[in-house]
Amino acid sequence: MISYILSILIFPGFLFSFLLGGLMDSFRRKLKAKMQLRIGPPLTQGFYDIIKLFSKETLIPENMPWVLYFIPPIIGVVSISIALSLFPIPLPFVKFNSHKIPFDLIVIFYLSEVPTICYLLFGYFTNSIFGQIGASRKAQLLFAYNVPMILIITALAFSVNGSPTFNLFDLATKGLNTTSIFLKIIFIPIFILCSLAKLKLNPFSIPNAEQEILEGPMVEASGPALALFEISHFMEWVILGFLFSYLFLPIFIIPTNLILISIILICFVFASLLSLLEAATARIELSQAINIFVKFTWPISILGLLLAFFTHV
Amino acid sequence: MIFKIGRSKSPWLFHLNTGSCNGCDIEIIALFASRYDVERLGCKLVGSPKHADICLVTGPVTARSKEPLLRIYDMLPNPKVVVCVGTCSISSGVFTDGYSIVGPAHKLIPVTAYVGGCSAHPKNIFLGLQKAIEVFKEGR
After folding, report:
1. Chain A partners of B75 at a C-beta cutoff of 8 Å?
2. What class has domain B12-126?
3. pTM for this structure?
4. Which of A119, A241, B105, B136 is the 20 to 30 Å CA partner of A189?
5. In this predicted model, what pLDDT tens digit does every residue of A3-13 receive, in sequence order?
6. What are the domain boundaries of chain A?
């Protein structure tokens, strides 16, 4: 029980992922600045932002109860901390996460969607027209990028040796056959596109467009509520970096002592990849974004799922 | 103490045009480009006044923009700082006593720093911003 609480609060959970996610987000901003021939903010910028936001006043809109103002960001942070605590990170010296759940990948996936739901609910609750436009854009994008995400995870689950599994540890250790490696290579671009949409980065920064709709659902957020949303955004970075390293890279063939370090390194490589794509592209329309997902990623992921299913049988 | 460090390293800017000719606005955008890059100070141009710490006001305040200026000043969460950019926002410039001008911004809201010039040079805006950050850091 104590180990479970510790894993939610400290190690793969809240504290660790807040630190790693803050560094990843600042690294992304720094790298983007370097690509635009600027100096960019320091690597600790994300933490300064959070500290400052906690020192600011909270302005709650008149027609909005304070409960609805604070509950969505808190639920977002708590759910994503629980999702992160389920990651099986083998460590030689700490035994925080020794518990094993047979279908943990599904739980992780759905808990990691809760902050997004909270984000769009907050947009609807604020009664601001910009918030509601942003929330409706996010809701439409959510359906477009979640379908290929679920399909590629299911295809990878079917492509492992032995029976299909949704356990992340089994998926990472048993998925080293020819079909699985072929599928992983095809699915990496789809995963990266979905990650860009999930993190609201540049070609898909449609829900939080600063210049058009004033950061969408976040338009009325201020002070600690905004800080909590930023923290859950940092933790979304970590969850996607972890999923990238577990699903697509063979991290369990290296020695146990080096696994955590290699996961952190892979997270930074992932952040730099997204930053490159973010700096190279401009914002597109919602219809174009949905076209990209429906016309390219859905058919490829469905074909991949069929391939995995038939080669498995 | 820790809040002071956070505030001095992460001032978020909101840009408000109260009837400017767009000259100062372009110079503010130039601040975020590669030559004067204020993102290295942690500055970010935010879309919503509720996220902002420092409000950059450009232009003389016209009758139409008086109400939005007052509302946006109320929307900025405390602690907040206002910087007037350009001659027009300091003294209404050539528009002084115009039929549609209700006066420079400091008649309506408290202003912390002034940046002169028509249009204001990005280097001067940068210096004014640094002064504003000093005041914002103290939480006034």
Report:
1. 59
2. alpha beta
3. 0.88
4. A119
5. 778 777 777 87
6. 1-311
